């Protein structure tokens, strides 16, 4: 736990897990001035605990803070505090939960003030929770649908950062999609409603004719850390990777021509999530629902191998908690 007051961040403290006591006027509850991150620590066979891309997550945290007018904490200090917190008890990364620990830093405006203005005081909390293996019984492909009725993010808005404000408005459209038999929404751009952006908590990739395509970071898409890891690996494997605006229509056209080989989402929770189908205005692309594609499988094996230290960490993605 860390507090911002008198114009600066105070030293971090380890405190027992417990409820917060907040004024009903706490600014963040009213105006959503809050930012968070989601990352994971992994325990290797010999008991070492390593966090996946800690500095990159903290850099994104700070970029999110900048957009939300929250004073940035010192990323080095915060990184050290997170490692120290986990190192208190390595059994927090328990075997029975797949040897992984989810780490959730959150910062929020703490002023008890109903004025709409940036707060003077903030609280930063890091909470952790063991996470089970995402795929216990093999991969479970997701079925996506576009929506005509809702948008996720606009240019100039906050879609490219990780703030609570982006998630609340997606709950109703996601609920409706579920009622119609879909797992999640694949969001299109707000302005022309034809460019693919991302999925609820994942970025999206298409493998077409042996090459990889993903929407470019256009100011309304969250720059996923897993997305970046996939791009680095594809690059190393000499798989051409195109980051550019992608229309939903061109994906359907490539599918019609038989060129669409694989679709998968990327994110911290599942790492790689095969996409079984995409529905758009009643037209459907269906991939092989029972299978994960070979490229997605290779990515999954490589990233999880690095995370659990069974493969060499050539990119220095892992940082040891010491
Ligand atoms: N998009 C959104 C909106 C997300 O919430 C997430 C999960 N953080 C992602 C993409 C994937 O990002 P990452 O790979 O960093 O988990």
Distance between the termini: 21 Å
Question: Unreliable stretches, pLDDT < 50, 5 or more residues?
Answer: none
Order of helices and strands: EEHEEEHHEEEHEEEEHEHEEEHE
Q: CATH topology of the largest domain, what is it called? A: D-amino Acid Aminotransferase, Chain A, domain 2
- Helix fraction? 10-25%
CATH superfamily of the largest domain: D-amino Acid Aminotransferase, subunit A, domain 2
Q: Please, how many domains? A: 2
Cα-atom Rg, whole angstroms? 20 Å
Percent strand: 25-35%
The helix count comes to: 7
Shape: globular
CATH architectural designation of the largest domain: Alpha-Beta Barrel
Mean pLDDT: 95
* SSE class: alpha+beta
DSSP strand tally: 17
Largest β-sheet summary = 9 strands, mixed
Ions and ligands: 4'-deoxy-4'-aminopyridoxal-5'-phosphate
The CATH class designation of the largest domain is Alpha Beta
